[in-house]
Amino acid sequence: MDIEREILETDLAIVGAGPAGLALAYKLAKLIEADDTVEMPEILFIEKGSHVGAHSLSGAVMDPRGLEELFGDYKELGAPLESPVTSEAMYWLRENASTKFPYEPPALSNHGNYIVSLNKLSAWMGEQVESCGLDIYAGLAGYDLVIEEGRITGVQTVDMGLDKEGEPKSNFEPGSIIKAKLTILCEGVHGSLTKKAFEKIPMLRKDSLPQVYLTGVKEVWEVPEGQIKAGQVIHTLGWPQPNNEYGGGWIYGMSDTMVSVGYAVGLNSPDPANDPHLKFQRYKTHPLLRKILEGGTMQNYGAKTIPDGGYYSMPRLYHDGLMLCGDSGGFLDPSRLKGIHLAIKSGIMAAETIMECLKADDFSANSLKKYQDRFENSWAKDELYKSRNFHASFKKGLFSGLIHAAIQTFTGGKGLFERRVNIEDHSYMLKKSEYRQQFGNDPSVKELKFDNNYTFDKLSDVYKSGTAHDEEQPSHLVISDLDICNNRCTEEYGNPCQHFCPAQVYEMVEDSDQNGTLKLQLTPSNCVHCKTCDIADPYQVIRWVTPQGGEGPNYENL
Ligand SMILES: Cc1cc2nc3c(=O)[nH]c(=O)nc-3n(C[C@H](O)[C@H](O)[C@H](O)COP(=O)(O)OP(=O)(O)OC[C@H]3O[C@@H](n4cnc5c(N)ncnc54)[C@H](O)[C@@H]3O)c2cc1C
Questions:
Q1: CB 48 within 8 A of CB 153
Q2: How far does the centroid of ligand 1 lie from the alpha carbon of residue 305, in Å?
Q3: If you measure from the C-alpha of residue 189 to the centroid of ligand 1, how many angstroms do you get, rounded to a whole number?
Q4: Distance between CA atoms of 381 and 37, rounded to whole angstroms?
Q5: Given the DSSP bridges, would you call strands 137-138 and 43-47 parallel, antiparallel or unpaired?
Q6: Predicted TM-score (pTM) of this structure
Q7: Residue identifier of the C-alpha nearest atom 10 of ligand 1
Q8: What percentage of the chain reaches a pLDDT higher than 90?
Q9: Contact, 96 vs 240, CB < 8 A?
Q10: Contact 504, 462 (CB under 8 A)
Q11: Looking at ligand 1, which residue's alpha carbon is closest to its atom 16?
Q12: Mean pLDDT for the chain?
């Protein structure tokens, strides 16, 4: 279908209003306010959530360093902080037992940090940006990256009002082309435009290792008083994650009655039945968790992937007409599982560089390289460099990982040697036959009977994420070869998508036309935009693209 699109000319296009994009916009506005040699450029700042914060999800214990550098006295300005961290503990879990670590590993020490809700923090940062006179267009999704002669020249927004077959309905509104001198991708983890940039401009990832991911599944609970304390931070390792796989859990006291509880599961699992949602529900059945949650009510649910590779997985952060900030640029410290402060810092460094580019009216790679230089000379680089070998140390399992991580803390992050693991997460997944051969049993889903009161099935959880999509639109989960899903994958892997998706988007159902054989049924309207499927699918035939703007989760408290 040939579509005529409106062209919107602008100086800067910012995609994504998370901490990175918001910090960038705020810092730029303040720098321009203080420098009368530079005029405010035209900025089109888009966000796919229905409002700023709607798609924000984090643990979240926040290191305030970024916020402080951006806003100065952020408390005085009214930043929404749930509680300062008041106590912390780390446990190693077995099925019915737990052992408290005698000390907190330095990377997980949270003295001076704050428990926050990223929804609230992003919404508040959005207000600060708007108070500088900048608009944020929430409900507008960037669908495609415009690349001309090797240079990024903007973004195409998503078409609205197409039916399931992609035919225009009466309310059809074609997406526009935002033509920008500079496009800054602040899409968060595994962004769909960022992925496109990596595919089309291979030099962005030429010198970096593949990004590696966890899927974090989270609920917020209201519990009776006396079961948690505001500011209490508990991290756990071990059960229900097998010791040969990567991951762990958290319990954070947002107040004396509100708890953030979650579990993060590595997507480099050999197990084709790896199910982060199920692991999280099992996690809650541990006595340590029951003591805190029982008698309470689950209020909110969400899931999202986490880019956990660290320094060696970071791409080059610039190209002609392009910058990458926050999780889009891999700014997350794997040893602390923290990215908010680094996303903010990346936004600050991008804004400082943009100031120089505006003065020179030059957005070429040559000019934007100063962003990379700033990063290489920043505290963000120092922090990320120290944890460069962290995730890869766990390649041989939990116990050797802990020993290596301990050695790294005394050797500036090096440990015994530099670790460069050049394997994508999905390549770790074993076929059913290989799994049987290696582990002596079938990849098995450890069944759990959900009572939908304390443990929840995926659909009941998704309901608590506020997720909504118009069902009459093309699927935003694009499967390039359904035949692989319905035949080869069933045979070889047992359709892992039905396990790894934490929102029940993928189900194998009986095909009445084919004598009851199984076929894949998609329910894209359940999707919480976590991106797990795009990352973990062993054949890489699933592509996550943006649905209509303003849809997806409507996260609160997360
Ligand atoms: C489960 C979990 C636990 C975590 N725990 C912690 C923690 O305790 N402490 C900590 O510091 N960090 C934590 N993090 C990491 C932290 O949340 C991220 O590093 C941080 O949010 C990154 O900020 P960002 O702005 O880069 O991306 P995001 O916060 O992800 O924001 C990106 C924004 O871009 C929008 N967007 C994406 N694509 C498009 C598009 N094509 N068009 C328009 N808009 C788009 C999204 O809707 C979103 O609003 C955690 C992350 C997860 C998932």
A1: no
A2: 9
A3: 6
A4: 31
A5: parallel
A6: 0.98
A7: 338
A8: 91
A9: no
A10: yes
A11: 339
A12: 96
